[in-house]
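Fold it.
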Amino acid sequence: MDSPPPIDTDTVLSVNNLSICYKTRKALVKAVRDVSFTIKRGETLGIVGESGCGKSTVSFGIVDFLGANGLITGGSVLFEGQELVGRSQKELNRLRGDRIAMVYQDPMAALNPTVRMGEQLTEVLTSHRDISLPEAKKQCVAMLKRVHMPDAEQVMDRYTHQLSGGQQQRVVIAMAMLNNPSLLIMDEPTTALDVTVEAAVLDLVEDLKRDFNTGILFISHNLGVVARVSDKVCVMYAGQVVEMGRVTELFKKPCHPYTKGLMRCVPKLGTDKAGSKLHPIPGRVPHPLKRPEDECIFVPRCNYSTDKCVQSWPGLYEVLPDHVSRCFYAEKVLKESLKEKTGNDKKAVSADAEEQPDETLLDVDNLKVYYEQQSKSIRSLFGLDEPQYVKAVDDISMEVAKGKTLGIVGESGCGKSTLVKGIIGLEEITDGDIDFLGVDIALPVDERQIETIQDIQMVFQNPDATLNPAYTVGRQIARPIRRFGTVPKNQAKAEVIRLLQAVRLGASYYDRYPRQLSGGEKQRVGIARALASRPDMVICDEPVSALDVSVQAAVLNLLLEIQKMLGTTLIFIAHDLSVVRFFSDDVAVMYLGQIMEMGPAETIYAPPYHPYTEALLSAVPIPDPEAEQKNIRLSGNVPSALNPPSGCRFHTRCPRRSMLPDNGMICETEVPPWRPVSKGHHILCHIPLDELRKIDSVVSAA
């Protein structure tokens, strides 16, 4: 067994050979096996790995919050030098929320929707401290201000539903920090947040660590997030620690095949599909009941494995100072990683391909999608109030070239999903034209011709919401085949199997049910079903945002292969700008129902930027701790689409208004011009292009 790490006076948490199991009807399931690490004061340890690797189980095990069937079967957890394993629930309750605090992925799971924020915050203080209620309220308001919460006094009187997602997470963080804990555990705290809100929360984590000298355990599947906040990184696979080291060393010199594989799954901000390739890790994390006891658990997915790997279980070896790896061939992995870092695997893009004229498949002209908002005043009962409208999509014009990919980015509430739902016919068009292959399709889906429905299909974000759990995979893919008559009925099963093979699943999946599939397999079924009608265009609405990085890479590669093979046109919505840059030929940046900037992908990611695009790029977590990135943070939230700002809709949050005379007063009164930058590249902004060109690149080193 691995030897326990040394403990010093600055150590907040020392986890030594921790093993955790869950009791089930079948057997005792080993979820975590011999995990060891330490966290010092003012230090952040990031834990990364795919779903099912035991990251959250470790965090729950630290405070024995494993549920009725979970138990610690070995090892120790020392908090400030005192053993936590074996403590009574009463003793642990005195630590939870006081000396040890936790921030969960979903703030809604931590906040009571029936109780005002003030009551929930003050309870944290009054439960652990001998303090009066007025003093507790005073400290809560001060902490809300400390986490940069606007209108802190008013927030105390609000309910959960009256706060945005970012505000809810700030409340949870404030709640966690009220008692100045020694250890803060953060389990995927930014996964559900917009990239701009995520950046602000990560900045806040760094500030709190510095000001309170708190030790932080930060769990995330996002390598960019971990690179930004961590001092040390622990890589977990199938319940084991497979690599651990200082953040800069681990990202620069990965010494385990799994770590190296994770990094090769993630597109870098400056790469594209023409000049680079993603390399997904084959297979999946094994089920806890099927994990071997006496061999390397990564063997089925490893390119370095030999007979030695299946004959004995590797321990943690120190490959570099303070850098350990659970691999017999760690030094070989290190040498190859360094060689790849210095090499250049980018491919030259054909100039002839760039000069070929593009045929327009979809032409959107002045599209508007408004929702009528019912007034709550008594005057509305008599028809005296003017109707109000939520301007979800407001006067958008764009073209999508045949066989190309248009990426659409922007914060939540900017109208991305409404735009594509209007195009596919799931939302009623208020005004404007949509021309698809010479046919006007500005109609609801039930009024469209069957050929149009067949030619435009959609892949949704959550496959669980679109797959019927009562039907087999084969039956669900066969339905559009029979509905549109793409092949004769007696050939439908063969066509389904062909589609399953095209999405790398195979004929064995024909009779399976959705519950028998992993998340990535479900998304592949969704893609196969979208392709069943042989459409000319597929709209993908956040198809990879909920997937592990390896599955995400596999799905992106699959979509690229299908596009290359079938010439399919794609519209791709995502919040990860690195993914959009890699995957898209053209990019549209949306804000509050309008397009702020649009053009070829390579032009969007280099100056001149629209100020909103610049802020989005500044917020992207880059999986490189040595990358130099501007720190541009947007203040406030996205304004309401019910009453959008006059003039430039971005002027209330724009960090570049000072570049204009009178601090950009023109932005408040006049709609900005649609300025052409280069071929196909336009920016909606009052700031002259010459001034925007003077702005340095967001990422100057990566």
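Residues 195-212 form the longest helix (18 residues).
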